[in-house]
Amino acid sequence: GQNIDQPTEMTATEGAIVQINCTYQTSGFNGLFWYQQHAGEAPTFLSYNVLDGLEEKGRFSSFLSRSKGYSYLLLKELQMKDSASYLCAVGDSNYQLIWGAGTKLIIKP
Amino acid sequence: IAGITQAPTSQILAAGRRMTLRCTQDMRHNAMYWYRQDLGLGLRLIHYSNTAGTTGKGEVPDGYSVSRANTDDFPLTLASAVPSQTSVYFCASSDTDSGANVLTFGAGSRLTVL
Fold first, then answer.
1. Which site among B89, B101, B104 would you substitute to test the A interface, given the most A Cβ atoms closer than 10 Å to its Cβ?
2. Strand partners, A84
3. Contact partners, residue A23, CB within 8 Å, separation at least 6
4. How do strand A84-91 and strand A32-37 relate by DSSP bridges?
5. In this predicted structure, what is the pLDDT of residue A103?
6. Per-residue pLDDT of chain B (114 residues; tens, 9 = 90+)
7. How far is the C-alpha of B20 from the C-alpha of A48, rounded, in Å?
8. What DSSP designation does A78 have?
9. What is the DSSP string of B48-84?
10. Partners of A9 in the beta sheet?
11. Residue of B nearest to A47 (CA)
12. A87:B41 CB<8 A
């Protein structure tokens, strides 16, 4: 079957760095996506990886290893506004997205 | 402002009633999707449409129907609501010809079936 695993919840301190991991098993692979979702709001797109390696976008970076079925989202210089859920999703062989349950990130002052 | 509009924002519904959730986009995206989001679970695809006039079933289509008469609108209908359909429903759209299939989401519709 198809499966996306990510931690349920993580806690970090304002100003610090946090890494959110995602492992996946899917039928086919057409890209790995990270979305941010604040409580009560819609998910918004953060990053996309289709090739192995690191993609950097400001304070956020995303890494992919297709051979290991593994990705992580790295958030630097954490701010209180980064408190949100982070959703990992993989495009399968039909280009449909398979979603993880999300990681709730709590930022403490 | 370009984006996706969903209505209603929230609704309480008696079991057995019929309900249509509306979704309209103004980005001229070819593909549209309906997801439900439940606590502790990932977004689950209900139905999708790759282009106007076509629809397909997702992971959890039972009890739901959709139509795509034009590019902009993609309503989701619950023919006879049941309590297990209590959820937050998100409509999304994407331009599948642009490379990465990045989804834009509506604000969501919170549905409670009693």
1. B101
2. A105
3. A4, A5, A6, A68, A69, A70, A71
4. antiparallel
5. 97
6. 679 999 999 999 999 999 999 999 999 999 999 999 998 888 999 999 999 999 999 999 999 999 999 999 999 999 999 999 999 999 999 998 877 889 999 999 999 999
7. 33
8. -
9. EESSTT--EE-SS-TTEEE--SSSSB--EEESS--GG
10. A104
11. B102
12. no
Cα–Cα nearest to A102, from A48, A56, A33, A53: A33
Tell me the chain B residues in contact with residue A41 when contact means C-beta distances shorter than 8 Å.
Answer: 107-108
Q: Beta strand pairing status for B104-105 and B87-94?
A: antiparallel
Work out the burial of residue A52: count CB atoms within 10 Å of its CB; fewer than 13 is exposed, 13-18 middle, 19 or more buried: exposed
pLDDT of B36: 98
Q: How many CB pairs under 8 A join A and B?
A: 48
In sequence order, the β-bridge partners of residue B91 are B34
Where is A48: in which H helix or E strand? strand A44-49
Residues of B in contact with A42 (CB under 8 A): 90, 105-108
Evaluated on CA atoms A24, A5, A33, A10, the torsion sign reads negative
Q: A49-77 pLDDT, tens per residue?
A: 999 999 999 999 999 999 999 999 999 99
What pLDDT is stored for residue A100 in this prediction?
95
Residues of chain A with pLDDT under 50: none
- Closest by CA to B8, choosing from B93, B64, B103, B91, is B91
Peptide bond before residue A43 is cis, with ω within 30 degrees of 0: no
